[in-house]
Amino acid sequence: MDRASANMNSTENLANESHEGAPQQAAPHRTRIKLCGLSKPGDVFHAIDLGADAIGLVFYPPSPRSVSVAQAVELVHDVPPFVSVVGLFVNATPDWIREVVSNVGLTLLQFHGDETPEQCESLAGVAGLPWLRALRVAADTQPADLVKSALSYSAASSLLFDTHVEGYGGGGKVFDWSLIPAELARRAVLSGGLNAQNVSEAIHRVRPYAVDVSSGIETPGAKGVKDHARMAAFVRAVRAADAE
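and the corresponding structure tokens:
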């Protein structure tokens, strides 16, 4: 090998070593977005256009955001692939779960009532779908309580943290985000009183896998009536927080 070739090989080796030894840039965190409580086709279309990762449909008749099976069929008709359709249930019977999933193209179940781990697994078995469990965080909840619950519901695809209020659902109230242990954040869906004004802080403090919003994208004082401008503002705020 002549000197020129040797020098060229040395230069190539040095370049390769420098490339291999260079610190790898971590991929930017991308918070998934679930827009919940949708009840009109226009709201679903807008959520999809905004790039939402999931839409939530409520199958709990006492809720003002509840939809019937017939409504849900219409709502999910044009949902494209890779957008999850989450069905929210509260203390549902197996028959109700079966009726919904046999007609509506759900991809995930959300249990938001008093379901035990065994009941969640049984109901999910009826549906043949993965599931997530909502955990209600009260004023006296401790991080250890959430860790214990996470262990109990270890079969869940994820855990949704919501504010404990009377009835079921967060009621648009925020809880103390610092209660969520760091080891749970990577599989956490953060909910409870989120809106375009506070979601950036929530993401920076918790770094959840996903955020879930319902009342924060509604017309004030009109439960179940989504405001398209608020929906867009919420998604922009999440994406801006991810970019910081």
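(Above: one complete record from the training split.) The two ends are 52 Å apart (CA to CA).
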